[in-house]
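tool=predict chain=A
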Amino acid sequence: MSQLPFLPFSKPTIDEATIASVSEVLRSGWITSGPKVQAFEAQLSEFCAGRPVRTFNSGTCTMEIALRIAGIGPGDEVITTPISWVATANVILEVGATPVFADIDPITRNLDLAQVEAAITPRTKAIIPVFLAGLPLDMTRLYALAHKHGLRVLEDAAQALGSSWNGERIGASGDFVSFSFQANKNVTCSEGGALVLNNAEEARLAEKYRLQGVTRSGFDGLDVDVLGGKFNMTDIAAAIGLGQFAHIETLTAHRRELARHYFECFGSDFESRYGAQLPPADFSNSNWHLFQLVLPERQDGLPARATFMERMQERGVGIGYHYPPIHLLSLYRERGFKDGMFPVAERVGRLIVSLPMFTAMTKDDVERSVATVKEVLQR
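tool=predict ok
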């Protein structure tokens, strides 16, 4: 057992100025959606090249609402990755459409676009790419493919706020873009999400969907013309987001430095010596939300990841895993998915782990994490 303090996989950092801002909201008497939400949306819009942005209470409802705005429903197919949080596929079911999975690239662990094109049918209406760990896939190829087949794109950028593609921020262009502000994200609101939209009409429709479909006019005019829900962000959450977002460039740069140090500490012979696969060494596009390894299979047939996580935990280092293959969860097996359909995703999903990566980490923490990984794998 380690005598050092436990090193968690993730830990939010909330500064005193943000705590004071939340206290100010609580004392104001206006704690639901209000001026802080409007200010947060304005800052996000500026960050995304002036595109309309609307905030919500999660990064899940943002995706469901985007699909509804796009008119996707029963009889339609939406292609996505098996390696994501299950919400990415669940929202497709929520609107009555059919999720279709495509296998992933073994290096980037994002969607393999050749597999996506092979999965397109006359019923395909959209693609939901996921930027795993904050690393975008090839956006040029993605949108060329979407335009070729007349498909909408909903970028699941839950982990990718602050990431970029060829020098342009994720969210600054494209189609729908969904961000998450859940507790372990690079920028958190404790819980929350944002949807980047294409025009004012889509933004107005998003506002309806997030608050019961209501449209107000004058002092007492009220109408409902779409079936909405209760998805609005509170000023309390927005105050946290504003405090975090003020430091996004610094936070992203720090994570990139931590990632560089991970690679330095693992060394050039790590993969050949230990049999584990490092992530792509991308220090310009990725925001390094996660630093992930794909473990080697155990020779004795025991579950490699569970054993690895247990032994890391015993040594005082927290480990996460992101994610088990969606198509092998019971809800999706019941819909006809089974083992062997997406072999790369199944191998990665069985062996992937996420090492400690958070704002308050130091290079000493990285060195401790790497040393513990090597010790456990050696044993």
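The domain at 248-377 is CATH 3.90.1150.10 (Aspartate Aminotransferase, domain 1). Residues 24 and 231 are 23 Å apart (CA to CA).
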